[in-house]
């Protein structure tokens, strides 16, 4: 009889283990996984325009650094043609005596971001981008990157359009490469 009871207990335990997880156990696992994924997204900064704006600012600072190096190495003059919604890279062609775009289109900022620039302490009114046919006009860049290693002294701001949005500053005195800084209440704190 003890053997028979043991067999029944073993069978009932085996059949219970074969049934799998209960609905409550599955829901607890899903809640835990959802919480962990939410924390991971928030910690990496994927959620929100502030991270994207910082990436745009770092991209622009990196582009300026590469163009400054290329200008010295190739003994060519480069420039950035800025407009309210983005920018375009130009190279001076001494044979044609004009600035020429290196690519077909300007780099456009996200719709919620805006760009402004000061040259020699004076704010520039940036034009709206136009859909001109290629070669229709002789564009003149606002920022110059010269073969001598000098840059135009500038203060360039990338902002979120909303009032309390992130404001980033890139600036150069004409000799050093720009770094990305967070601007708050007229004061810029180093970030980089």
TrEMBL record:
Q: Which UniProt keywords apply?
A: Cell inner membrane, Cell membrane, Membrane, Methylation, Transmembrane, Transmembrane helix
Q: What range(s) does the General secretion pathway GspH domain occupy? A: 56-174
Q: Any idea what this protein is called? A: Type II secretion system protein H
Keyword Transmembrane set for record: yes
Subcellular location field: Cell inner membrane
Q: Which Pfam families does the entry link to?
A: GspH, N_methyl
Does this entry carry the keyword Magnesium? no
Q: What membrane topology was assigned to this protein in its record? A: Single-pass membrane protein
Q: Which segments cross the bilayer? A: 21-42
- Which family, according to the similarity comment? Belongs to the GSP H family.
């Amino acid at each position: 009889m003890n053997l028979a009871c043991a067999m029944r207990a073993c069978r009932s335990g085996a059949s219970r283990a074969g049934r799998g997880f209960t609905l409550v156990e599955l829901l607890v696992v899903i809640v835990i996984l959802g919480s962990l994924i939410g924390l991971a997204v928030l910690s990496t900064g994927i959620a929100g325009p502030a991270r994207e704006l910082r990436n745009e600012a770092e991209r622009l600072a990196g582009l300026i650094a590469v163009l400054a190096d290329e200008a010295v190495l190739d003994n060519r003059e480069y420039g950035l043609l800025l407009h309210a919604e983005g920018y375009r890279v130009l190279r001076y062609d001494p044979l044609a005596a004009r600035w020429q775009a290196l690519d077909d289109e300007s780099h456009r900022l996200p719709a919620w971001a805006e760009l402004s620039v000061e040259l020699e302490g004076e704010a520039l009114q940036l034009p709206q981008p136009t859909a001109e046919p290629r070669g229709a006009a002789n564009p003149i860049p606002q920022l110059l990157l010269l073969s001598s290693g000098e840059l135009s002294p500038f203060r360039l701001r990338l902002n979120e359009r909303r009032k309390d949005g992130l404001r980033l500053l890139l600036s150069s005195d004409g000799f050093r490469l720009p770094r990305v800084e967070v601007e708050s209440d007229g004061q810029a704190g180093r970030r980089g």
